[in-house]
Amino acid sequence: MTPLQTAPEISKVLHPSWIELRTDRLLGNLEALCHRSAPMTSVLAVIKANAYGHGVEEVAGILDGQVSFFGVASLREALALKERHPLTRVFLFGHLFSHEIPAAIGANITLSVSSYEKAKEISDCAEGLGRKASIHIKIDTGMGRMGIRSGMAASEIMKMRTLKGLLMEGIYTHLPTAEKADTFRETQVRDFSLLIEDLERKGIVFRFRHAQNSAASMTLKTALLNMLRPGLSLYGIYPDPGLKDAVHVEPVLSWKTRIILVKTVRTGDSVGYGREFIAKSDTNIAILPVGYSHGYPWAAWKKASVLFKGKRYPLAGKVSMDYLTVDLGSNTAREGDTVTLIGEDGNESITAEDIAGWAGTIPYEIVTRLNPYIPRIVTENK
């Protein structure tokens, strides 16, 4: 690499499609969310699902030592992180089957517990290994999935206190309508608060208390909670359009590709499956080596566009498994030219939220479905 060549320039030579990650934006988003919730001092950065499609190795490398915990959903994710990023503790949201518990305890992974029975199983295993297992107890205040129902949580936690193999380090809940400061969310926060206060009167004090997912990180502030739990917002994507004025975050990810072929299509000729695109006049078509197998949503094809040399161009026909076709009109391009699928080009930009809108889905799905084999290139700034 010559001194003038940057990582993205090298990627254009080596890869037909690649993802760029802005280190400055990731750290800037973390700072913005922490500032909004000050004086909190702890952060559980959610990097499950390959860091929401951004690349778990790359994101963990940037955040290692910057946050208190990495949050993941599976034991496999947790074990890989513990091996490669020892500076930051790992919290496992997911349920563990019995055969998985010894490996989790052996790796010092902090575990989520949703019942006394599972807590006892973890405790017994930890005692057999001559260790203590750190747990965070999940409280179901209205999400209706994992967790102990708030009305019976105090008695269950009192029983857990007698288990010798546990270190009851944290307590948390999840807000299903976190973006809405409505009565339902208020009731959840109140029930969670009353439970914690009740437990403290009984001598049970938790080091970590958390409920603020991405949306709540932007809208909820209470002295009761002392750890943020951002996911999507950490990557500069808003979980709800109504939150854009709450905290300013910027997209970390750009997705780019190279043109592999340019051809002229004559009036009346068709392009792609189903012959959905029929040329109304002679036009130039750029073919891109990206399709739904790479994570570009098939359902977006009617409304989708890409960026090329600072201008926006529509797709020409359906998304196929390995290719996109783009209608350039009378404009010309060459093999190897760069096209932006997500990101900025001149004064134009396309976001994950834009593609989600075109596909009729949510931005979470757009980024988490990005193929893990697409190279992730870490950059300091643009």
Helix-strand blueprint:
Elements: H1 7-14, E1 17-22, H2 23-36, E2 42-46, H3 48-52, H4 56-63, E3 69-72, H5 75-84, E4 89-92, H6 101-106, E5 110-113, H7 116-128, E6 133-140, E7 148-149, H8 150-160, E8 166-173, H9 183-201, E9 208-210, H10 214-219, E10 227-228, E11 253-258, E12 261-265, E13 270-271, E14 277-278, E15 283-288, E16 305-308, E17 311-314, E18 324-329, E19 338-345, E20 348-350, H11 352-359, H12 363-368, E21 376-379
Helix pairs in contact: 8-9
Notes on the protein architecture:
The longest helix has 19 residues, at 183-201. The protein folds into two domains: 22-240, Alanine racemase (TIM Barrel, Alpha-Beta Barrel); 253-379, Lyase, Ornithine Decarboxylase, Chain A, domain 1 (Beta Barrel). The strands form five sheets. Strands 2, 3, 4, 5, 6, 7, 8, 9 and 10 form a nine-stranded parallel β-sheet that branches. A five-stranded mixed β-sheet has the order 20-19-11-1-21. Residues 1-5 have low confidence and may be disordered. Strand 4, helix 6 (101-106) and strand 5 (110-113) form a beta-alpha-beta unit. The chain has helices at 7-14, 23-36, 48-52, 56-63, 75-84, 101-106, 116-128, 150-160, 183-201, 214-219, 352-359, 363-368, and strands spanning 17-22, 42-46, 69-72, 89-92, 110-113, 133-140, 148-149, 166-173, 208-210, 227-228, 253-258, 261-265, 270-271, 277-278, 283-288, 305-308, 311-314, 324-329, 338-345, 348-350, 376-379. Helix content is 30%, strand content 25%. It has 382 residues and is an alpha/beta fold.
